């Protein structure tokens, strides 16, 4: 077993992370089986660091000298959440690298087994059924989405955005932008920047309604949660202090968090504390939808697909790339007027990108 080689994949209620060897050596024993749950900090496997692992990374524990071994703990890759007054979180081990004391010759992260019903075509006339246990992440998502619906007085307002000017801006400067900053220019940075400016202008949308404390908490910072798709599901990492970011800062932060999420290196701290969420269903072809508030936040922006449609501009019918946008908000805190004006601020900034540069 080489240093940083993957021993197992651990799935928590928020993220899926790889458990890696802290040092080179031989795995003497794995202290859990597939499907077991471990408390944060609990010993997970025993690593004999006195035995040198072969360069290929594979060895048998029977070849290892009888030397002192070091138990490895899950807290190396999955720090404990900071949420107060909550019971200790448990982490479900999705796919241990080995169930015996033998180590693997590959460092590639293993994949969880999939049910036959999702990987093979059913036989003609088959009426079989397959039940698959819910993973902690999917179970938590389900609970929180329903809690959000049951708690917030959720309402959604819609608008449409003419993407003509932003599309032209991107086409004109994307190569120069990538050469200067080492990152591609996308549409998400413009929407994050427009949302950050609108949130500063409308602090009530950036606030949170606390029924237990009978108060409204306002923030003087903007932390935007951005939905990112990964092979194990949708995660929502947070961009901190978006009010101080430019386009390059935003694109780099999104790319970094997205890569960390796909590589199973993202932490719970990087996915908590957002004040507003942006969900981009348009990348999958969604024309219009109603996003659900990411509690305890008070609002969420839904971006949708860009479709060329005939629109009236200066009394002339022209073809323009149009996008529907949606804002779902907690009506207990945000009035309809505030929500509509907030969404119009985003619309105006996207349709005239110079407003983003002039902070208008």
**Ends apart, CA distance between termini:** 56 Å
The CATH class of the largest domain: Alpha Beta
* Overall outline: globular
- CATH topology value of the largest domain: Chloramphenicol Acetyltransferase
Biggest β-sheet: strands ordered side by side in the sheet: 8-17-16-15-11-14
* CATH architecture field of the largest domain: 2-Layer Sandwich
Q: SSE string, helix = H, strand = E?
A: EEEEEEEHHEHHEEEEEEHEEEHH
Low-confidence stretches are 53-70, 73-117
Summed up, the domain count is 2
What's the helical proportion of residues? 10-25%
Walk me through the structure.
This protein has 360 residues and is an alpha+beta fold. It has two domains: 6-96, no CATH class; 145-357, Chloramphenicol Acetyltransferase (2-Layer Sandwich). It is built from seven helices and 17 strands. The chain has helices spanning 116-119, 136-151, 164-181, 188-201, 247-262, 336-351, 354-357, and strands at residues 6-11, 16-20, 26-30, 37-39, 43-48, 70-73, 90-96, 154-162, 208-210, 215-217, 224-226, 228-230, 233-235, 238-239, 276-280, 299-313, 316-330. The strands form five sheets. Strands 8-17-16-15-11-14 form a six-stranded mixed β-sheet. The radius of gyration is 24 Å and the shape is globular. Mean pLDDT is 78; it is low at 53-70 and 73-117.
